[in-house]
Amino acid sequence: MRTVRITFTNGNVQEVSGIPEDSKITFGTVHGGGTMTPGGANLCLRIYKGSRDNGNQLAVFQGVESFIDLSLSLSLPVAKKEWIDR
User: Fold this and answer.
1) CA 33, 62, 65, 58 torsion: positive or negative?
2) Using CA atoms, how far apart are residues 30 and 64, in angstroms rounded to an integer?
3) Of 53, 75, 67, which is closest to residue 3 (Cα–Cα)?
4) Which of 2, 79, 85 is nearest to 48 (CA)?
5) Which of 76, 43, 74, 34 has the alpha carbon at shortest distance from 61?
6) pLDDT tens profile 55-84
7) Which H helix or E strand runs over 68?
8) Domain boundaries, the chain
9) pTM of the prediction?
């Protein structure tokens, strides 16, 4: 099972777990063909069981700013400070 963390445009964060491994997750406008405006309330995250083409939609989250599948391993660059003696 997969878990995704969703950040909404209002700042709320929600984790959704129990998503089947073979699910398809899409991110885009609520209505197809709409304009994708980052941070806009018209962006949504959809979760489908299996492929998107089979019509088995499990969930739709509206007002999504960003999301991440928590099974991903992330590494962040860290600035290294070096002291120089003079």
Assistant:
1) negative
2) 10
3) 67
4) 2
5) 43
6) 789 999 999 999 999 988 877 777 777 776
7) strand 64-69
8) 2-69
9) 0.73
Nearest to 27 by CA among 81, 76, 66, 84: 66
The DSSP secondary structure of 37-63, one letter per residue, reads -TT-TTEEEEEESS-GGG--EEEEEES
The 2-8 sheet, strands edge to edge: 13-19, 2-8, 64-69
Q: How many CB atoms lie within 10 A of CB 64?
A: 23
Residue 28 CB-half CA count within 13 A: 7
Structure tokens given for 58: 């499990």
Structure tokens at 83: 């002291």
Distance CA 51, CA 53 (A): 5
